[in-house]
Amino acid sequence: MSSLGRRGIHFFHKLNAANVPTDLLEKGQNRVIDASLTLIRERAKLKGELVRALGGAVATASLLGVPLGHNSSFLQGPAFAPPRIREAIWCGSTNSATEEGKELKDPRVLTDVGDVPVQEIRDCAVDDDRLMNVISDSVKLVMEEAPLRPLVLGGDHSISYPVVRAVSEKLGGPVDILHLDAHPDIYHSFEGNKYSHASSFARIMEGGYARRLLQVGIRSITTEGREQGKRFGVEQFEMRTFSRDREFLENLKLGEGVKGVYISIDVDSLDPAFAPGVSHIEPGGLSFRDVLNILHNLQGNVVAADVVEFNPQRDTVDGMTAMVAAKLVRELTAKISKL
Fold first, then answer.
1. Looking at residue 24, what is its pLDDT?
2. Is 210 helix (H, G, I), strand (E, B) or coil?
3. What is stated as this protein's family in its record (predicted)?
4. Which of 96, 119, 122, 319 is the most exposed place for a label (fewest CB within 10 A)?
């Protein structure tokens, strides 16, 4: 978090401690939240109207940035990721086609509704319960503008909870989740924080928002992580057995009997040789082509997705990890969009 952001939050905390009337503080918070949601609503309406006017789109991936980093247990750099990912998508280093030939410049394939103004909301001393609601409400606003489907740019992995919650509630039932990560992120409460990026999937499973949760790329897991996995019936695929599991994982069929498939990709699922720009470097991960093979061969109706935990402050080699994150977004766009 920037020093300016910290000063803003501390200032409001001091005001609250100095007996500023609660109703006055809440009024200010409500105005900022209302303005934030209005921003997303109007952008989503504009993009939805454009896509519908062009015609022919059954589903369109719509970027929504959630620049949140304060629920990280180590570094907060993922808050700076959304603009860097967008820059890499459109930098001109490569063309704008996905591997299967969909054209990102076609707004029926990909559109963008901007970022949830997380820092501005936190500067008003809004707590995480309300912030998570704002994120969920923002996702729902995107989904209201058919055929837009949210493709969320994190941010740390704590954002997956409010996003999946919104998708499940909006669609009226649970989804199947494909989760690629070095870690299971299923602690009951990590370091006393129920919204920790290491606890997001515990909240998702507790809420009943997922029927199946498949976790792929796991190579840093504690006893609690395994016990929580068993408690919730999670299908955990560790890297130590990936060669054995490869055929199954590269031929997944998900989403039958539920509202669709949600894909969550933590960039640290990749081996750091492919993506060094992450907060938690964990050797022994998936290759980039392993990830693409899993995505390309997946059979299922992908209703939403996220790419999280890219940390620009740790990126190297002229933004290599930014390009990796951008490529993941490109291929997820191809998976979500339907013309």
1. 87
2. strand
3. Belongs to the arginase family. Agmatinase subfamily.
4. 96
Tens digit of each residue's pLDDT (9 = 90 or more) over 273-304:
999 999 999 999 999 999 999 999 999 999 99
Q: Which two tokens stand for residue 280?
A: 């938690």
Tell whether the model's pLDDT for residue 6 goes beyond 50. no
> Within 13 Å of residue 95, how many CA atoms lie on the same side as its CB?
8
Query: Known binder of ligand: residue 266?
Result: yes
> How many CB atoms neighbour CB 106 within 10 A?
17
CA-closest candidate to residue 307, choices 334, 327, 280: 327
Collapse the DSSP code of 194 into the 3-class scheme (helix H, G, I; strand E, B; otherwise coil) and give the result: coil
| 3-state DSSP percent of the chain in helix, strand and coil, to 5 | 45, 20, 35
Question: Three-state DSSP class for 134?
Answer: helix
Residue 193: pLDDT above 50? yes
Using CA atoms, how far apart are residues 256 and 37, in angstroms rounded to an integer?
33
Task: Say whether the peptide bond before residue 184 is cis (omega within 30 degrees of 0).
Answer: no
Residue 127 annotated as part of some ligand binding site = no
- On the question of pLDDT at 3 being above 50, the answer is no
Assess contact for 277 and 314: CB atoms under 8 A.
yes
In the block, which residue shows the tokens 């063309």? Answer: 95
Of 3.40.50.150, 3.40.800.10, 1.10.3210.10, 3.40.720.10, which CATH number belongs to 22-336? 3.40.800.10
Half-sphere exposure of 284 (CA within 13 A, CB side): 12
pLDDT above 90 as % of the chain: 91
Residue 304 β-bridge partners: 262
Residues 214-261: tens digit of each pLDDT: 999 999 999 999 999 999 999 999 999 999 999 999 999 999 999 999
User: Cα separations (Å) of 46 from 38, 62, 144, 156?
Assistant: 12, 12, 12, 28
The verdict on whether residue 157 carries a ligand-binding annotation is yes
- Stated as kind and residue range, the H or E segment containing 298 is none
pLDDT band at 12 (very low <50, low <70, confident <90, very high): low
| Residue extents of the structural domains in the chain | 22-336
- Known binder of ligand: residue 306? no
